Amino acid sequence: MNNVVELRGIGKTFGSEEVLKDIDLEVRKGEFISFLAPSGSGKTTLLRIINLLEEPSSGEMKIFGRDMNSINKKGRLEVRRRMTLVSQKPVMFSGSVFDNISYGLKIRHYSKNDIKEKVKEVLELVGFAGYEDRNARTLSGGETQRLCFARALIFDPELLLLDEPTTSLDPISEAKIHNIIKEIKKLGITIILATHKQEEALGLSDRIAVFNEGNMEQVSGVEELFHFPETRFAAEFTGMCNIFYGKVEGKESRETIVELEGETLSLPFDVSGSEVCFGIRPEEVMILREDVPVNTIHRNIFNGVIIDIYPKNSALKRLTLDTGKIRVFADLPNHAVEKMQLRKGKKVMFSLKLSSIRRLI
C-alpha cells in the first residue's frame, strides 16, 4: 500500500455554507504534505475529516487502504488508533508531564517498565528529557506544544496530523517545534500539516496543497509551487508579489507582447485572448549595474526610482521600484544592496527576467 490517504470528490457543507468542494488528493506513505491556506479556507475541516472527527457531505475516502464509506464502528476505531492529531489549542490534564504522556498507555494496560521506557523515548525526541515531574499546567506555550507532540507520538502513529501547531508561538518556540517536526519526519511517519504560514509549508513539506475558499487550487512539489504557481491566488500566497494584467498587443517569434499601463513587455508564452494575467517573483527582478553595458540577454528593461527599501529578513532587502507607470518589488541580498549602493531615491535600471515570468489564471 503506497497511499495512506485517498480522497475522491470530498465535499463538506455546514448548513448552506460549502466549506470543501470536490477535493481529490492522495497522500503517499512517508510523505510530508501541507495544506496551505488562509483562515476559513477549509484546511482544518479536511484534517478533521481525515481524522474521522467529521463526516464528509459527499465523496469517497480511504485511510490505510480501508474504505471509510463502508467501514463499521470497530474498523473506524482501528483506523483512528493508527493516527494522532496535534491541534493549535492544546488541552492539558492536571498533573505532571509524565502523567499527561503516560495516561493513554495506562488505560491500554501497558506495564510500568514499558510506560517508563516509552515516555523517556518521546521526551528525548521532543527535547524534554528531565521534565517528567514538571507540573503540566505551569509550562509555557511552546513547552505545552512540545508536550502535545510527545503525547501524540507515544503510540507510534503511522499518520500524524498537525493543525496549525505554531500559530500562537513566539519565533524561538516555533523554531523548536519545526526542529521536532523534522526529527519526526526522519522516522518515516506520514505527516499532514494544516498551516497559513507559507515559509513553514515551504520549509518542511515534500508537497503542498493550496486551498482557497474550499477549493484545492494547486497541489505540487515545493519547488514547482514556488517557481511555477498555476493561479493568481497560489502565486500571491507563496510570495509572488509582482502580479499584473496586460493587454495583448501582438506576437514576436515565440513571445507575446503586452501593454501594461503604458509600458511594453515581452512574455515567454503564447496568449490566445486579448488580456493576460502574469507575475514574477521579487527574487527574479534584476537591478542592472551602472558600469555594465546592457546587452541583448536582458529583456523587459525599465528605468525607475527606488521609493522604498527595508529588510525582508536577515539576508534580504526588499526594494520598491517605481517607473512612473508601474511599481515592482525586488528582493536582493544585503551584500548586493551595499555593493551597488542602492538607497531610497536612487534612479536605477532593472529587468523583469523573461524566463521567470509566469502565466496565471
Keywords:
globular; OB fold (Dihydrolipoamide Acetyltransferase, E2P); 361 residues; five-stranded antiparallel beta sheet; 36% strand; Rossmann fold
Q: What is the overall pLDDT average?
A: 93
Q: Helix fraction?
A: 25-40%
State the assembly state of the protein chains.
single chain
Number of helices: 10
Distance between termini?
35 Å
Report strand order across the widest sheet.
6-7-8-3-9-10
**Quick one: overall form?**
globular
Using DSSP, what is the number of strands? 20
Name the beta content range. 35-45%
CATH architecture level-2 label of the largest domain: 3-Layer(aba) Sandwich
Main beta sheet, described? Answer: 6 strands, mixed
CATH H-tier superfamily of the largest domain: P-loop containing nucleotide triphosphate hydrolases
Question: Which structural class do the helices and strands define?
Answer: alpha+beta
Order of helices and strands: EEEHEEHEHHHEHEHEEHHEEEEEEEEHEE
- The fold-level CATH name of the largest domain is Rossmann fold
The CATH class of the largest domain is identified as Alpha Beta
* Rg on CA atoms, Å: 25 Å
Number of domains: 2
Catalogue the unreliable spans. none
